[in-house]
Specification:
This protein is an alpha+beta fold. It has helices spanning about 5-10, 35-50, 50-55, 90-110, and strands spanning about 15-20, 25-30, 60-65, 70-75, 80-85. About 40% of the residues lie in helices and about 30% in strands.
Length: about 110
């Protein structure tokens, strides 16, 4: 597929496409954290937030996790997660826009 390379060109450290059950479909960029670990954790976080998102009035569409040095931006669509690990200070707006664009494109092809 190699659709995630556009994210790497924007400065994303690591990009991942995973199913809701945590299986890696595609990854690009650096391999830390390991793609399998990242996919499993994203799936676990999404499952853990189901009750909260329902009480907010809908399904989970997007979430961000931030540490002192990096952030993970995630778009949720059609049973999949598209995530990007970025360094603090990265252009989150451009990366978020590209994540959304890719999610729309992927939703039509997978």
């Amino acid at each position: 597929m190699k659709m995630l390379e556009t994210l790497v060109s924007l400065g994303v450290r690591q990009a991942i496409l995973t199913s809701q059950d945590g299986l890696v479909i595609e990854s690009a960029g650096k391999e830390t954290p390991e793609p399998e670990l990242l996919a499993a954790e994203l799936a676990t976080l999404a499952r853990a937030s189901r009750t909260l998102t329902k009480s907010l009035g809908g399904d989970l569409r997007r979430f961000t996790i931030a540490t002192e040095h990096r952030e993970i931006l995630v778009v949720v669509f059609g049973g999949y997660f598209l995530g990007a690990v970025v360094e603090k200070g990265a252009d989150r707006k451009s990366i978020g826009n590209e994540l959304s664009r890719l999610a729309l494109r992927l939703a039509q092809t997978i």
